[in-house]
Amino acid sequence: MKPELRDYQHDGLTRVASAFAGGARRVVAVAPTGSGKGTMAASELARHSSAGERCLLLVHRREIVKDLAKRAAKATGKRVGVILPGERDDPKALIRIASVQSVVRRPATLAADFIIVDEAHHYAADEWGAVLAKYPTTPILGFTATPQRADGRALGDVFDSMVVVVGYATLIQSGHIVPCEVLRPPSYLGIDLAQDPLDAYMRYAMDQPALIFVRRVDEAKALYKRFLDAGIVAAVVHANTGASERDETLKRLADGRITVVINVFALTEGVDVSRVSTIVLARTCDHVSTYVQIVGRALRSHPGKTTARLLDLTGVSHKHGLPTDDREYSLAGSGMGPGNGGGGGPGEARVGKVLGLDLNSVAGELDAARKLRPDPKRLEWEGLAADVEAGRMTVATAVEQYRSSTGERPPWVNSLSRVAKLRERERIENLCRGTAMSDVFVAKQYEKLFGVQHVVDG
Prior knowledge:
- By secondary structure, the protein is α/β, with parallel strands linked by helices.
- The protein is built from 17 helices and 14 strands.
- Helix 2 crosses helix 3 (65-76) and helix 14 (376-389) packs antiparallel against helix 15 (395-406).
- The protein has three domains: 7-166, P-loop containing nucleotide triphosphate hydrolases (Rossmann fold, 3-Layer(aba) Sandwich); 176-368, 3-Layer(aba) Sandwich (Rossmann fold), CATH 3.40.50; 376-450, no CATH class.
């Protein structure tokens, strides 16, 4: 049994097969949010397992492993094993689905003849990349909407071939995603906001299901209280929100019990709530991949939904283009082009429009806002720390990236959560296991990162 494919999905997978047949070992398939990457992955699992191959699907979030296993079993008609702490694996199953974190912690390499990785742009990180390094000759297929690393570079050091499955224009024309209206100030404002997020929402998107992206947890909590005071049912999600609370919040957003979710570095990707029609972007996005992932949360089609709306309060679309611009992709350089709609290019008329509204500065008090503006270096670290807390990056990698960017060690590293610290301690111990390195060496390596030799609460 194989899932029924749309024409572009069939064509894309045919080109993927041709790339492997031509000698490629690792192929990344690029397709926007709403294109059906899960369906394509299930089709490949069915095809390879039917040929007797052992298939492994790696996903980046523990919470979705069991759900994907059920969907894969239904789509393929085959037994599916689950590799997750507390779950019983089925080693004889030809299809096995695992969280990448679980595989990182396993001392033995899982047997696999074919591997699929979800959100493939994450596998450039040291820890996750090490998982793929265990399979030097195994064909690996990655899926992503944004072929760009967290540091803004392309994926050429991980994949050796790229297939662009479909563009936004085709998906909009076929009704699989909706076009996106953009409201923005006349120019890019950097870390300034053209309007207060609550005011912008009430003026331009009142009662619409929305995700609001802000840069700090204290900012999210203060905004949450103001939304409640305005009579708007809201919730807050951030990197340290527990998995069950996060899932329950998204469930309430999906069924209409919540109208707005304010989040900090937590719902950028891997979120499928098609009811969401509005994105309020009240933070900067240094890289186009982050911007595209964020706005993609509102592009999925839904009954009664004809368009999505982006309230771009920093004007970052001037820098990165319109959300549904068809872009140039590459395995070299930055990996993703900026799009052509940001400056009024032809992409504007084809897949979206800029409404040209002259959004005002926050309450006319930019001077006061600048006094409260966080240190840019602190913002740099908070972005890296969010990836650490979510398990997408090791502490050592985050510290090195910060040092490379600023020339100094981040002074806030010890404020990471206890969970992150335990994960890093375990990583160091795993690296030293089976070597002559002693516990003293482990403690010293840990101390280099956190200033103490043992895990303590941050």
